[in-house]
Amino acid sequence: MASKFSQFLTDNKIDPRRIIAASKELEALRPEDRRAKAAKRQAAGSDKPAEGDAKPAKPRSGRPVNAVLLRRLEAGGKVSGPAKQRLVRALNHILAARKKDAVEVRALF
User: Fold this and answer.
1) Percentage of the chain exceeding pLDDT 90
2) Is the pLDDT of residue 19 over 90?
3) CA distance 34 to 44
4) 58 and 108 share one domain
5) 68 and 50: one domain?
6) pLDDT of 63-90, one tens digit each?
7) Full residue range of the structural domain in which residue 56 is found
8) How far apart are the first and last CA of the chain?
9) 39, 41, 78, 93 - which has most CB atoms within 10 Å?
10) Quick one: 45 and 74 in the same domain?
């Protein structure tokens, strides 16, 4: 019995290696993400929060989808919530390039 995820990949003719490449591109840390992490570390050392700082945008995770995760999904194993989000983000990137509609997490898991 194939999982919903593997069935989705075969229906849309998506190679798992393409998912890994897209996720690596999307989740890679950029200089602004590194600056935000450094500022957060420096602020943690001081007692007072910085004045006038607005809440920064959510940084990228720096942890792309990997082959182990894809094998676990195709076998029907359990996957954490953040890993599912990274996977859906990479799939939607591929589907957008193919001019197809985006997919939701519930449709895959």
Assistant:
1) 55
2) yes
3) 15
4) no
5) no
6) 999 999 999 988 888 999 999 999 999 9
7) 31-63
8) 14
9) 93
10) no
Enumerate residues 6+ apart whose C-beta is below 8 A from 60: 26, 27, 28, 29, 30, 33
Q: Quick check: 34 and 62 in contact, CB under 8 A? A: no
d(CA 44, CA 38) in angstroms, rounded, equals 10
Q: Are residues 71 and 95 in the same domain?
A: yes
Residues 20 and 68 grouped into a single domain: yes
pLDDT at 108: 87
Residues contacting residue 56 through CB under 8 Å, at least 6 positions apart: 36, 39
Q: Are residues 75 and 35 in the same domain?
A: no
Kindly calculate the radius of gyration of the chain based on its CA atoms and give it in whole angstroms: 17
**What's the number of domains the chain is made of?**
2
Show Cβ contacts of residue 108 under 8 Å, excluding neighbours closer than 6 positions.
4, 5, 8, 84, 87, 88, 91
Q: Residue 55: is its pLDDT beyond 90?
A: no
**Identity of the amino acid at 23:** S
| Tokens linked to 39 | 């500022």
